[in-house]
Queue: 3 jobs
Job 1
Amino acid sequence: MAKFAANLSMLFTEVDFLDRFQAAAAAGFKGVEYLFPYDFEAAEIKRRLDDNGLTQVLFNLPAGDWGGGERGIACHPDRVEEFREGVERAIEYARVLGNTQVNCLAGIQPEGVSDHQARQTLVDNLRFAADKLEAAGILLIAEPINTRDIPGFFLNRTTQALALFDEVGSRNLKLQYDIYHMQIMEGDLAPTIEKHLDRIAHVQLADNPGRHEPGTGEINYPFLFAHLDRLGYAGWIGCEYKPQAGTREGLGWLDAVR
């Protein structure tokens, strides 16, 4: 049966970040994920994890100036050295936190950069990161993201991502399948998950429209959860949604499936 991880970048935001670990544990979550750990000391995050009996499931490689609107730099030809330094930084944090997988955000294709340049840069960067992370015992994952929420994001469909992974040619690179993003971009969720299950290492969820909790939109989450169980998916499902009326008030969907 799949396990659910609270995304602390979107849930429990009424309290300071470091206090969200306790809030997640109190709500019954066994794992946590979030965008980035780098504004905090790794040892302090580790203490919060241990104090609350939580597994650190996932965070992203450094992704440029997030506050300034950047959403990853892996497809930016002029940022390769910065990307490589970010891989080393992520490894340092992952080793302390016990994190066994890290996500790479491809980024928004820069103006003046051709599709070929962006793709080749992304392939080269993923190959570098996959090798470095494998040596450290950490899995690299990458996710397609919808171009409505992030216009111009370079990686936006399942088959596109997997073809690019084939070009990278690393056994240490898998897919992060975000149900919300893929419902917007391509639909056909259940057959796609089934077809590519062996290449999916992590799943994330939110309903559509609105990116709120399951049960607020069009996606049949009871069916998808049962489908994942039938397929034998035993990984984590990250709860990366915007609570419609508060995190705790919106957790009825989770109580119904665990």
Job 2
Amino acid sequence: MTPSIPVTTSRLSEHLPLLDLLPENHPIAWVRGGDGLVGWGVFATTTVSGPNRFADARHWWQEQLSKMQINDSVHANGTGPILFTSFSFSPEDASVLVIPEVVVGLRNGKSWVTWIGDSPQPVLPQIAPAFPANSITWHKEFDEDNQWKTRVSHAVSRIQGGEVEKVVLAREINVSAQSAIDPRKVLHKLSLEYPSTWNFAISNLVGATPELLMRLTHGMITSRVLAGTISKTGNDERDLALAASLARSSKDLEEHEYAVRSVADAIAPFCKSTNVPESPFVLHLANVMHLATDVTGALVETLNKVDSFSVLEKLHPSAAVCGTPTEKASALIDEIEGLARGRYAGPVGWIDASGDGELGIALRCGQIQGNSIRLYAGCGIVAGSDPERELVESQAKFAPMKSALS
């Protein structure tokens, strides 16, 4: 097939706040600390599902690329045509793929615009959008917290019985509003309160994840693993003491080790060398602290066709969102969790024409449907988990989205 659809990338002389550029319809975003990518308009979109969804997504992306005549004068990570992806946690649910008509990027002081089609370079908006107030109602089922603690207790007993080593359980909150919920308003609030997280919006899944599942660029893989959490008090002295206790907590260190090991084992076949720090560091966010480890690896040059899809297929689901061993933890989730995760806890982010990309785990997020949104939070359960502590942790993990909606 002769490429017939022009795709042009040009450098921009001005650096406009990315989130201010988003339109009301179908806003797409992947932004951290002001840098990242935003997109709008839909050139092409599809859904994939089933056990081969990552391979099917690659095939569809390559089909779309074969139609394109790419003129990229910037040649940076994230330029050219971009595929935004939001994969489901479970293979049975639908994963969403979107190629925007226009993408604007900003990284390290350099900005650019990519557009698809024969039209001239798009004119970018100069005025930040205004968001009217929207009354929010929180819906809570009778005895919901006790039901959650019962599930945690059940999981702990199964772990202590030797069935699994770790399992991650999720819960949900349903929220309704007086008028349609605007993902742009949610993104703006999240970016202000959680600038060190990756703020994302794809097909009405919106959130601020602190966990980078994988960054693949120029033959290097990076993954930020988070597992082990403690709430912050707002008192600096007290929070420093809590951070120290988190770093010494045998329960949290055990949970973290399972997650790190699952990521390191998943990327090892692709890499000639990997770097796994011996001890985690404590990542401070606005409301919580996490044990965190940055795992890195250098790809084997002789391996062919190693791209983001290849790595995702091995990485997901990691122990940070599923458990250990994976198959047994997944079966236990299906048995006792009691909800459909959809795209919560699935890979979310972007992939470029070379197969490089940056994808996080869809955490601290919600799925918007008109005037309602469903929020999700999850906790890693190990043998030493306490149901009351896990309840408090889950409530802390709802805080970013609660604040963004309030």
Job 3
Amino acid sequence: MARTEPDVTAAANDGRRSIQSIEVGCTLLTALVEAATPLSLRDLAQAAGMTSAKAHPYLVSFIRVGLVQQDGVTGHYELGAFALQMGLVSLQRLDPVRAAMPELAELRDEIGHTLGIAVLGSHGPTMVHMSQASYPVHVNMRQGTVMSMLHTATGLVFAAWLPPKVADHYITREIGDTAVISSIDTPVATPRSTLDAMLADIRVHGMARALGNPLPGVDALSVPVFDNTGSVVLALTSLGPTGRFDTAYDGVIARPLLRCAQSISRKLGYTGR
């Protein structure tokens, strides 16, 4: 019996040979991921842009290799055990900072302002990467700089999205800590009601901003990056000189900054809004 060749085709963008049926079938997997809920054959096929008759053979094969499973009662389809194992392995290998770097380079070229990535360190939110603007910005900020939880946009992002007890620990810890950069020499306690209202407002806007804090004449916007558990893992911060830096929540810096953070979050497995 003659062997049939797989439906090999050349990709339009790079000329490399590929298996067309795999690419077509993966639209069904994409539909299941985006739906995040079991789907009937009709709804799944519709979401993937194909007929039920075309979708069914792909689903049979996916079930056989563990990428999809079918509920014996409802007949609905969802991701299978092997698909879940693949996702877990991918998430375990992900380094949030490494995942952010390509996105950061594109964002810097788009907005033209200094960008920084901060993670939560032992002293508090700590800058681990700085990408400088094309114009000089005189800031006392570099890799390893620890940002105040309440007196910097970067810190406020962590204060707003960390679990309250964790945030309170870092807020209390920074008082008198000379390693922390702040706009004031000795941070003072903020009334709980004032703090709660401030952090609630930040969560509504999806970002924190600082006008002249911690450095007079320098403004900043900062947005959170989340992982697959919904935990904040990075703060992505842009800063620039007052008067030249748009601090509007829907401005020419805020919009691409937020889009970039959302894109990184999706790469880390975050499925929230």
